[in-house]
Amino acid sequence: MKLLFLCMLLCMGSAQAEEIAHNTKVNEWLITNAMVVVGVGTPAEGPKDIHIKQGKIQQIQSSREDSELRKAGLKTIDAKSGYVLPGFINMHVHTMYKRAGIEMAQPYQHYLWLANGITTIRDLGSDLDETLKQREQSAKHEIIAPRMFVYPGIWGNHLEKDLEKTIKNYQKKGVDGLKFGMMDKQTFTSASKIAKKYGLKVANHVGVEDMNAWDNINAGTTTIEHWYGVPDAALHGVQNFPPDMNYSNELHRFRYAGRLWREADLDKLDSVLQGMVDADVAWNPTLVIYEASRDLQRATSSPWFNDYLHPGLEKFFQPSADSHGSFFWGWTTTDEVFWKNNYQIWFKALRDFADKGGIITTGEDAGYIYQVFGFGLLRELQLQQEAGFHPLEVIKHATVNGAKVLGQGDQLGQVRIGYKADLIIVNGNPLADLSVLWPRNIPTMTGDETTGGIVWTLKDGIPYHVPTMLKAVREMVRKARKENPIDYLVQ
Ligand SMILES: [Zn+2]
Q1: 38 closest CA partner among 81, 78, 82, 86
Q2: By CB count within 10 A, which of 294, 320, 376, 393 is most buried?
Q3: 94 C-alpha to center of ligand 1: Å?
Q4: How far is the CA of 418 from the centre of ligand 1 (A)?
């Protein structure tokens, strides 16, 4: 009897210690000793054990050696008092299969997104058929990739009958929504009406057009991307452009964008923000994609370039009139100073918008302007903290809010019973320092190399081991550099 008892203890002990392996589908398993950040803005709780069953969170309970769950001998990941958060939702990505003429085959992006904690992406324009195929493969776990929502882009001005044809065709292909970019008022109004008819959500990148955020409010646009259109709706007339301003010149475009927020009338801006809140228009600011405008030196010397910058991106980022957003050939200190001030007004508008009840999400738009996939989103989190949001709110923007805007708020974006087990396990406390989310081989802000890093990312309860994926990415980058020797290194 005693022997049997001893054996039971030992057997259970060894079963408990068995760690689940990278990319294995296990019906039922356990995360132990986790500090849990639910995602809704409440403080961390723990240590807790999280029981995962059939890809969903089945139970969350206080960690106890003698609990029934522990005794069940399930496969386990011991979080070792690290933090468990909902996986991040990246609301602005472009899946890229080639950059600057250089092949950039998957899983380069997929691994980088997962490794940086991103379990869901909203693709706002890429090779549609290929990305739809990958959406299905990801849903069936045939590839290691985040969950995908696909919104193909419609850019510029079109006749209503052509818009109808295009949107109908997209809907037939099974898209999740649409991205509209730089349309005049007439095109935007027609396109919004047709999108509504086909039941499709709309993400809108407004340009300098005869439309602005008031048109988004009237049309009930799902998200305003970036920020254009918001201060534009609060101007007295048009922006004070110099006579030689040429909108086709990207140096001009980005330069004078940096002088836009200061021209907004703050009372008018207040009504615009209230209008967005009332019409349920969410805001996906992508602060990160303009960071080079306010600090070129920082943007061009990111610590992840050494190991993770694909030569296709590196080539594309070089100042050139041919690559969108690579406008730095004539950038000046004065431009940076204007942009630094621009950010302060933008930050304040975001806080006011959130105070009124507005929904802010997180997105990176990487692949442009020195931003690398996944790392871009983590930098976005830091910038949202800089805008004045508590890290708990920033995490809410990246999880709960994204899920809500995607129409998935009842199953994604929270560490909560019944929700999909899309989670990250971090070796450290991101509430104390968001830079602990950076990959393990990149020192945190404090230079600490003994902690930090997302160790596991889960999608549908399947655990992906981050160091394993990052090692594969480093190999892909080394190989691509060898095949595409280029004689400049961004840093
Ligand atoms: Zn974009």
Answers
A1: 86
A2: 376
A3: 6
A4: 33
